[in-house]
Write a structure and sequence with these properties.
By secondary structure, this protein is α+β, with helices and mostly antiparallel strands. Helix content is about 60%, strand content about 10%. The strands form two sheets. It has a five-stranded mixed sheet with strand order 2-4-5-7-6, with helices on one face. The protein has a two-stranded antiparallel sheet with strand order 1-3. α9 runs antiparallel to α11 (about 305-315).
């Protein structure tokens, strides 16, 4: 707020005092004029009134500087607020200013107490989910061993595909619980991107066979510098969507391209129904299922959101090319220098 506007606001806030002063001055003038016992010449009366008004103006100017020092300091603090803002609260002159500081300190203490309780509850919830996932994986592993031992049974393929869906959902939940602490679980290494993708294709092989979907690789193997586990998680989310929306007997193509001393790109292309133009800008939004997800009633709106969230954290750029009824291609671009690792090591 400019100085002029602040001064006008100050006068407006003090209007009752100013009106009281003017009425008091008028009352004294009337008293002198009515009371014959008080004899003052008109020039002297005018001089006295002007002198008192001038004194009032000087007084208001002095009080303005004194009383607006604190709110001006608060306004400056609000513009550049930081974590330790309570320690830089301005010094006080009036009681109400000290009361305001006390309130701000109490609010800060209450806020951090609530945040601490929230973090504690969230940590407990994440620990519980992680423990639950690990407990559930034990019977799932037993089921998988049973499936592998009885593959000659005609029902095993259907059971395996359903087992895979449960396994993917539980594994996704485990990664969600680890996501807030990704930085502590991040290991940068050089690895082949096609090899990582092949491992995920193998994980989804039973689902692909159930839908008679062919998977092909194009291009040469290229080395990228990334975290293997989290990179595989991104590939898994993209491949899961590709298999889910691919038609029976369709094909998924994974192609790699690289520019010399430039980025490596993995493209995962399917022959599904594609994405409508109005849905395309929102596919990475949390909970967004789009037209295809609503029609098939098979989407949670989490897969691509999680893929984008992890990609942002580990320095991978995701882009999408799609047209309705023309399939979808999602590209993972690995920069020559991992920006996430550069920031992480500089802290």
């Amino acid at each position: 707020m400019s100085g002029k506007r602040l001064f006008l606001r100050y006068l407006y806030d003090r209007k009752s005092w100013i009106v009281f002063f003017l009425f008091s001055l008028l009352f004294v003038d009337l008293l002198i004029w009515i009371d014959n016992g008080i004899s003052i010449r008109g020039n002297s009366m005018l001089y006295l009134n002007l002198l008192l008004i001038l004194a009032m103006i000087v007084f208001l100017g002095w009080r303005f500087r004194k009383e607006t020092r604190y709110p001006r300091a608060l306004a400056e603090l609000a513009e550049g607020i930081h974590e330790d803002w309570v320690e830089t609260l301005p010094s006080t002159y009036l009681y109400q200013e000290e009361a305001t500081n006390q309130l701000l300190r109490a609010v800060d203490h209450w806020y951090w107490h609530k945040i601490s309780k929230s973090y504690s509850a969230r940590s407990m919830e994440q620990d519980y989910i992680a423990a639950w996932v690990h407990e559930v994986k034990t019977p799932l592993t037993a089921v998988k061993l049973t499936i592998d031992a009885n593959r000659d049974h005609p029902a095993m393929r259907k059971i395996e595909s359903e087992w895979l869906r449960i396994h993917l959902l539980i594994d996704q939940q485990l990664y969600i619980s680890r996501l807030p602490t990704l930085e502590a679980d991040y290991v940068l290494e050089q690895t082949g991107i096609q090899r990582l993708a092949a491992l995920e294709v193998r994980e989804l092989s039973s689902w692909c066979m159930e839908k008679n979907i062919a998977v092909e690789f194009e291009g040469e193997e290229n080395l990228v510098r990334t975290d293997r586990k989290w990179c595989r998680f991104i590939i898994r989310q993209i491949l899961t969507n590709a298999v889910k929306y691919s038609p029976e007997g369709g094909m998924i193509v994974l192609s790699t391209t690289a520019i010399e001393d430039g980025p490596v790109r993995l493209t995962i292309r399917d022959e599904g129904p594609g994405i409508a133009a109005q849905d395309l800008p929102r596919i990475f939004d949390k909970g967004f299922t789009g037209e295809n997800g609503r029609l098939q009633n098979a989407a949670t709106g989490l897969g691509l959101y999680l893929a984008q969230t992890v990609a942002d954290k580990i320095g991978i750029r995701l882009t999408v090319e799609s047209e309705s009824q023309s399939g979808t291609a999602i590209q993972m671009t690995f920069t020559a220098i991992n920006a996430f690792e550069s920031v992480r090591t500089s802290i």
